[in-house]
Amino acid sequence: IVKKYVLARIDLMSQTKTSSNGFPAVIQNQDQLEEVMSRPGPGVKEELSKLDGDLLVLGVGGKMGPSLARQARRAFDEVGSTARVIGVSRFGNVALRQQLESWGIHTIQCDLLDSESVAQLPDASAIIFMAGMKFGASSDPSLTWAMNTHLPTLIASRYPRVPTVVFSSGNVYPLVPVDGDGAAEHLPAAPIGEYAQSVLGRERIFEYFSRQLGTKMVHFRLFYAAELRYGILYDVASAVWQGRPVNVDTGYANCIWQGDANAMALRSLGQVDSPPKILNVTSPDRVAFRDLAHRFGELLGKTPQITGQEQETAFLADVTRAVQAFGKPAVDLDTVIQWVANWVRHDGTSLNKPTHFEVRNGQF
């Protein structure tokens, strides 16, 4: 593919294990991983110090919720705030609830699709809305739509005029040319598949209540957050390590360290507006899956197997607005790549939640 400019890529020749802004060169275990991911990112303490009450994290039991809630708790502690971080989830995993409580997070077990249970949730001064469904969306579309469009009605009705950051997805955009700047917030949504359609439905429901009730919100359109147990970096590294092929049909993607994504979500409380403001969130750098496979091959001592051929379009983001608001991510992608390679080489734990980055038809 002929490109109009040189894509920002991972430096395939860099093999030096150096720290990034005080972060460790290697992450050895899950306790250290959780500690690193939950360090309050730049600006988080300043933003949360403005809250005059509790922070409610809805859907705290998902992939990103625990580290976000802990980061908020640590930020409150460091500024001397007694505000609570309240994490709400079904908590099918009892151990997760116990872990959150050990971090100082107040937990509430709740089926968020039950209106009576939602009505009994405590008041809050700000909300991070992380509840939703992606994986398994194709096998249970009715639950997907209930979680992604009915649930927002319950929450928006229960918490009028409470500042809310709504987690969304870059999947609401169409595939865009890889030789362009990526999808910017002004690009009309054109979701592919029922999951992405339901995510846009989530945004539309919250937008309706924002306009009707004056609730200030941000639609937090996230592109590929990654940590060591899941994400596109883990998916490619584990495939290379295990000798499985890496499909490169979707040739490029944006990716951000989960700790930075969570920091930007918390800082987005300072960006809320009515009607909702839209923010694309990820690293401004792009990774090329072919290059990524070869880089992991170098780090892991393996020869990657490549299948497919790069197409002319991909899910790519223009993050100019987010960089203006928050600056660039604190942790560079090459540091995360080295962390992931070490993790996979030493058989680190996996969350067993593949990203399906190769999927182009929206069927997750």
How would you describe the overall organization of this protein?
This protein has 364 residues and is an alpha/beta fold. The protein is built from twelve helices and 15 strands. The protein has helices at 30-37, 44-48, 65-78, 94-102, 115-119, 141-158, 193-213, 232-242, 258-267, 289-300, 320-326, 333-345; strands at residues 55-58, 85-89, 106-109, 126-129, 164-169, 176-177, 217-222, 225-226, 245-247, 252-254, 256-257, 277-281, 286-288, 305-307, 313-314. The chain has a seven-stranded parallel sheet, with helices on both faces. Strands 6-15 form a two-stranded antiparallel ribbon. The longest helix has 21 residues, at 193-213. The chain starts with 29 loop residues before the first helix and ends in a 19-residue tail after the last helix. Residues 1-18 have low confidence and may be disordered.
